[in-house]
Amino acid sequence: MSAFTDRMRAIRSAPTGKKVAALFDYDGTLIEGFSAAAIMRARLRSLEFGFGELADFLLIGLRGVVSEQDYAEVLDATRPTFAGKTYAELIEFGEHLFKYETAAKLRPQMWQILRAHREMGHTIVIASSATRFQIEPIAREIEADFALATDVEVVDGVVTGNIRGRPLWGPGKAAAVRTLAREHGIDLAASFAYSDGNEDIPYLESVGNPAAVSPRRILRAEAETRGWPIIDLKNPTYNRLGMLARTGAFYSSFLASAAVGVTTGLVRRDPSALVEALPTGTDVGLSLAGIHVQVLEGGEYLTSARPCVFLFNHQSKLDLPVMINLVRSEATGVAKKEVQRVPVVGPILQQAGLVFIDRADPGRAIEQLAPAVRALRDDGMSLVVAPEGTRSPTPRVGRFKKGPFHIAMQAGVPIVPVVLRNTGELMWRGAQLIRPGTVEVMVLPPVDTSDWSPEEIGDRADEVRQMYVSALADWPLDFFADDDARPPAEVPEERQL
Q1: Among 366, 368, 367, which residue's Cα sits nearest to residue 357?
Q2: How far apart are CA 244 and CA 235, in angstroms?
């Protein structure tokens, strides 16, 4: 049994409710590496990084940070990053870096721990020595109840670069946690905390359930002495040339099957030939890319409730080929209008009968959805839709749009929720290359829509979304390992497809 699965069992057996907190350090804990590195890279690219600033950071790096005074010098060295900019500019800067750089470094195992705490109703807290601009995006993504950070002074909307209050480094973070607990009635003895840093020993010992996550040397020794759980995690690395070859093989197979389908359709004068050809090419492409699709539960619902509306949580470009692999035939989909303009792929999907929606024109929503309703009601086709509407940069399940639920209700067909896990880890939102690994799937029981009314569609959408949140939080522990985004060679043979 791994330290990760031990921890998940401890969370699931803990008391429920807001009196129990789950406190997460950010750099080195929720993400691999440090968010400040993305800031420095951005400053270097923009030529804002002066030689004096660079020299200060090199000196600090050589000397190390072992005290609050040392960390105060680090913050002083970062003053040029913030001083003179508006608060709004820095928040926007932090969100851009998170979306396009830092989110890719999130540890999938820690995200699952977060989900488990959220499902238990615990108070979720980010506690970081980083500035608020660095942690605000992740705090929003994990729906944190509180974000404890090092704050900077703002005067008339402009950041001065001065630090406001005590930096949340070492004892400062522990003090902030105790203050938060007093003010909000949190039982620290029943609470959980996670960190990788040596300086966070006072913070970890302030709770009853600390855990060291891939800890540095001093924290590791302290955790071993005190019997604290040590959860060693590392995002896997891959050979980029191998990934390039596998990704190229996937697209080649997909496009080849599309070409066969289009040609066959022209010869037979049957547009459905493309839909029939795509699953085979997709299967071969996924195999060549090293992607295995594993249905853990509910495989029978992929065929038993048709025609239906298949919903899936959207994290990656991999989602569509995985859904083609699962749904197979007699189905079409709904996509945003922008996809129609994607070279090669757009025309293929249009030929396959996808319905494209202009999200900028919500006033025509019912009119735009009419072809999808006809495909379900008159043609017996099932529909594949991502209710979030767009990919999330993290595994968070976004808010569900009402359109798919209106379609199912109007067509009088059930909804079949398909829950995907790991597509985002194997092909991150901004990535172009596919990593080998296993996509795990749960297909939930069909949801009857026969007694729905238009007035309650919003509530129905929230109910179905919660099914996804609960399924992902309660994912069977047997299917996790400490190195979660593992390549397929490490997956037991009986679990491979």
Answers
A1: 368
A2: 19
For β-strands 158-164 and 146-155, DSSP reports them as: antiparallel
Tokens of 52: 């004096």
> Which structure tokens are listed for 477?
């522990």
pLDDT at 192 over 80: yes
Peptide bond into 307 cis (omega under 30): yes
The answer to whether 192 and 211 have CB atoms below 8 angstroms apart is yes
Q: Calculate the CA dihedral of residues 304, 308, 309, 313 and round it to 10 degrees.
A: 0
Task: Quickly state the pLDDT bin for 492 (edges 50, 70, 90).
Answer: very low
Q: How far apart are CA 136 and CA 159, in angstroms?
A: 16
The H or E element that residue 296 is part of is: strand 291-297
Cα 228–chain centre separation: 28
Helices (H), 46-200: 51-63, 68-77, 79-82, 87-100, 108-119, 132-141, 171-184
C-alpha distances in Å from residue 1, one per residue of 4, 29, 482, 488: 8, 21, 10, 20
Number of Cβ within 10 Å of residue 343's Cβ equals 6
Q: What is the pLDDT of residue 491?
A: 34
pLDDT band at 44 (very low <50, low <70, confident <90, very high): low
